[in-house]
Recover the amino acids of this structure.
C-alpha cells in the first residue's frame, strides 16, 4: 500500500508539474501589466503546491499561529529546513512571498520555469557577486511590499538538528525594517529527508508561526539571527543547541 502511495505521489507530482505550468504562464501573461509583485501568480503557485498535500492520504499538515501575520506587512520568513517537503508545505500558508532558492532549481523544467515567472530569487551559493545581487533584489522587493522566504541555515540539516544560521536574512530585515518571522517546521523530515519520498504511515506535520522579531530587537544582524534561532530551537525542543551559531 505504501509503495503504491509513493509511486502515485510521483505520478501526480509530474502530472501537476507539467499541466499546471501552462495556466501559470497564462496568469503571468494576463496579469503582467497590473500585478507588479505577481501576487495572483503566487497564489496560484500556492494552490499548485498545496495539491501535493491536500489529496495525499499519508500527510497531515497543521498550521499554528497564522493569525500573527498582518495583512499588508512585508516580512522576512525564516523557517528551519530538514526536508524537501518543507518547500511544498510552506505553500499552505497562502501568503505572498518570494522564495530565495539555489539557482539550479530555476533550470528544472516547468517547476523552475514557474519559479522564474514568479520572480523568485535564485542564488549561486559559490558566487559572492550572486549573493550581493540577491541581497539587493530582496531588499528592493521588501520595499515594494513583497515578503521574502529564506532558509537561514542555507541548506537542509543532515541529522535533524538545527544548523548554523547565516546572517543574510537578518541583514535584509534591518536594512528594510521588515520583521523577521521565525517558523518552526516539525515532522517533514520523517517522510522526505534524503531526497527520496517513502511512505510507511501517516505523517503529521506542523508549521508553527512564532512571534515576529522586530529588526531593532537585535543590535546587529548576528544578534537578530541568534534571537530568531533561539525561538525556533525552543519550539523544536532543541534548547541545548548553541545560540551563538550564526555566521
Amino acid at each position: 500500500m505504501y509503495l503504491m502511495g509513493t509511486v502515485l505521489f510521483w505520478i501526480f507530482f509530474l502530472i501537476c508539474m507539467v499541466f499546471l505550468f501552462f495556466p501559470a504562464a497564462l496568469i503571468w501573461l494576463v496579469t503582467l501589466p497590473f500585478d507588479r509583485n505577481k501576487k495572483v501568480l503566487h497564489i496560484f503557485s500556492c494552490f499548485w503546491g498545496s495539491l501535493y498535500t491536500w489529496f495525499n492520504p499519508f500527510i497531515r499538515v497543521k498550521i499554528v499561529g497564522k493569525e500573527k501575520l498582518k495583512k499588508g506587512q512585508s516580512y522576512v520568513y525564516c523557517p528551519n529546513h530538514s526536508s524537501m517537503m518543507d518547500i511544498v508545505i510552506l505553500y499552505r500558508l497562502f501568503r505572498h512571498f518570494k522564495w530565495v532558492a539555489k539557482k539550479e532549481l530555476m533550470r528544472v523544467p516547468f517547476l523552475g520555469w514557474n519559479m522564474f515567472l514568479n520572480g523568485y530569487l535564485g542564488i549561486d551559493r559559490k558566487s559572492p557577486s550572486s549573493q550581493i545581487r540577491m541581497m539587493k533584489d530582496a531588499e528592493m522587493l521588501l520595499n515594494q511590499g513583497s515578503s521574502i522566504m529564506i532558509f537561514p541555515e542555507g541548506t537542509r540539516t543532515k541529522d535533524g538538528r538545527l544548523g548554523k544560521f547565516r546572517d543574510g536574512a537578518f541583514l535584509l530585515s534591518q536594512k528594510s525594517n521588515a520583521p523577521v518571522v521565525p517558523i518552526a517546521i516539525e515532522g517533514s523530515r520523517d517522510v522526505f529527508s534524503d531526497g527520496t519520498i517513502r511512505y510507511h504511515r501517516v505523517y503529521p506535520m506542523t508549521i508553527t508561526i512564532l512571534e515576529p522579531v522586530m529588526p531593532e530587537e537585535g543590535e546587529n544582524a548576528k544578534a537578530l539571527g541568534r534571537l530568531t534561532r533561539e525561538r525556533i530551537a525552543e519550539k523544536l525542543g532543541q534548547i541545548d543547541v548553541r545560540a551563538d551559531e550564526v555566521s
Remarks:
- Residues 2-235 form a domain with the Glycerol-3-phosphate (1)-acyltransferase fold (CATH 3.40.1130.10).
- The helical segments are 2-19, 21-31, 39-54, 85-90, 111-118, 128-143, 168-176, 221-235.
- The two ends are 44 Å apart (CA to CA).
- The mean pLDDT is 91.
